[in-house]
Amino acid sequence: AMEKSYMSVFLLLVALSCALAKEPPKKETKAPKETKETKPKLPQTLSRGWGDHLIWTQTYEEALFRSKTSNKPVMIIHHLDDCPHSQALKKAFAENKEVQKLAEQFVLLNLVYETTDKNLSPDGQYVPRILFIDPTLTVRADITGRYSNRLYAYEPSDMPL
């Protein structure tokens, strides 16, 4: 019986010393974590280069919620990283001061993946396309680009539009 209690105390001490010997978890500060993740390529924010000073939402649902609560319309930009037309439009959009100022009036979302929501591809799943949704959560079919076969397509030359 005595050996059992010695063994129990011994195991308890071993367990305790193991627990205490482990280093305390290091408190992570935000900055190093971000730099670790973003060092290999350029920093990737929700703006994805469309306007780093603008406030972007992460999901369609978040954009709709913000639209309803702020009474601002939503601007959704569908694009792809490896699409030259998307890249050209992004550059023109980000460099145009008037467009950037105007963009502040919207709840902003840019998507690099296709959505299953048919409201977001009313005339097809092409990129780049920009849709506007008013605070009543209605896609504005009256705000379109200049192409009849791709209503929501825009090009760098369309910035004044």
TrEMBL record:
This is AGR2 protein. InterPro entries: AGR/TXD (IPR051099), Thioredoxin-like_sf (IPR036249). Residues 1-21 form the signal peptide. It is found in: Endoplasmic reticulum; Secreted. The keyword Endoplasmic reticulum applies. Keywords: Endoplasmic reticulum, Secreted, Signal. Residues 24-40 have a biased composition (Basic and acidic residues). It comes from the Eukaryota. One of its GO terms (molecular function) is dystroglycan binding. It comes from Nothocercus nigrocapillus. Belongs to the AGR family.
